């Protein structure tokens, strides 16, 4: 049990909020059993479910000045949701990642470091997820990395990896480009055509995956990010531009062509009434053409381009070949084209239809727009207020910045110019198509990260580990900046002469478990031998007397007994019975609690049916701050309503040798909660098993 599926938890810490994603896939041995030739040449099959996600606002970056609050005030509810999904016996072997994006990149380095350290400490103390390496599992990822993960996710879901023959775009090209836009940044990732790939080889990333049969799969991908080009950051730059144009003036209202007519807002975008006249405000004019003109300069197309060619802000990007480079757009690319302007049932995007809808909406009076919002949900109202600016920014980035052909306007050979999309049935062959889900699975860069992790668990063909899973500079071998998948294909307890520097999980837990297991067996054998030799009472008494006499000779009269003497006295009292008259024994007593309150074993759980507000025992905290993925928390038989998340750092615990270690005074311990020990994990942290999508059942 517990060997047929693996799980993974990843937290996408964006600028506006943190979103939990859970993924599940079959263990490699299970996946290859009875697999067809086509399946063996495919990547691991990850599954997920809508119920396995959860989001909380605001973003992690808002805790930059108060990092201690990020755990209890932000992460706690997300972890609770994950523990409702993941089976109890899989938690310790389930890796957890928190990867922060643009919002955290905007913070000073010292605040980034403080937050990532606090997050790792919180997760280690309050969960039993596998977290062997803080730097690997809790990090602020670069925009290029985020884009590459997104590129993996899009191609994984579209079939560009597993079925390249079904996705031939010409010129030997079978992968799709990836575009992402959030609140603070925007990313692009694509595989250039053969000519551009050779010309700009030094600009590409080498990506290595591994199929179920152990074969390596390599791709050369270009990725770039534009920090400050997300919709929220772009709007801030736009407001500053309006202030430069219209202020100072006699009026405290700035005309805003990117707002619907007669809508009044603060500079931050909050709606204000006609009676509120405090401070500078924006008044909508509903002139979308003028809005497009004012947002265009924000693209930075006039910036110097030291390395031709460039797209946005003077940043180098290899030339795009839209005969073979077909892009998938996610996040704001989807929400802004399929939100308040309708188009929810559209298979794809075309410029002419979209622009017509936007102009019609943005020229309307705000009172008419607001009255037409059926739900009256303030979130929907806010989306409507922001829609015109977002549309203008998206159109400028897509067509003026990146150069996506405007279907319905631009005539290009081989492209559909009728405004009707090719759609999924023909493999997303338009130059650009916004998507939210593919085959009912959300397209998120987090999926790409977990695909990489799952592929790293597959053993290489013929034991060839010269091509580890991960990515780095486009050079042969393993470049110095290579980022490993973070997972290991070696079985638990593996020992060998191979270097395990890129396999941190098995390398630690395997050796620890083997060593402690061997020591325990030797100890049991020793006890049996001693019991056999001293089975008669007269022998026990004679040996005890000699040992006691020997130990007393080395001690001065009146001096305190040393630990060695106390240990021998305690041991002999247990082996030989009560000591002879006149001798004294030392017995260690656990403070303020009975030992039978606790036992070594899984953390007691009330099941999967508890509500979000409950504090289930799945939150058992770590016994010490330096816990590794190989040690679990003790089982509490009776919490009496006590919240394990509030247990103070430093309860008593067992070390890996089985010895009781005190790490705090009894004064700090909760009177009715004492811990008798910790146990080793039942499996290696690389045996990732996590709950996410119920597409296959365990047997």
From TrEMBL:
Keyword Nucleotide-binding in record: yes
CDD domains reported for this sequence: ASKHA_NBD_YND1-like
GO BP terms: CTP metabolic process; UDP catabolic process
GO cellular component entries: Golgi apparatus; membrane
Keywords associated with the record: ATP-binding, Hydrolase, Membrane, Nucleotide-binding, Transmembrane, Transmembrane helix
Catalytic residues identified in the record: 146
Biased segments, Acidic residues type: 601-612
Keyword Membrane: yes
A molecular-function term among this protein's GO annotations: ATP binding
The organism's place on the tree of life at top rank: Eukaryota
Membrane-spanning ranges: 517-534
Record-listed ATP binding positions: 183-187
InterPro entries named among the record's database cross-references: GDA1_CD39_NTPase
Region (Disordered): 597-632, 673-699
Protein family according to the UniProt entry: Belongs to the GDA1/CD39 NTPase family.
Name under which the protein is recorded: Nucleoside phosphatase family-domain-containing protein
Organism of provenance: Echria macrotheca
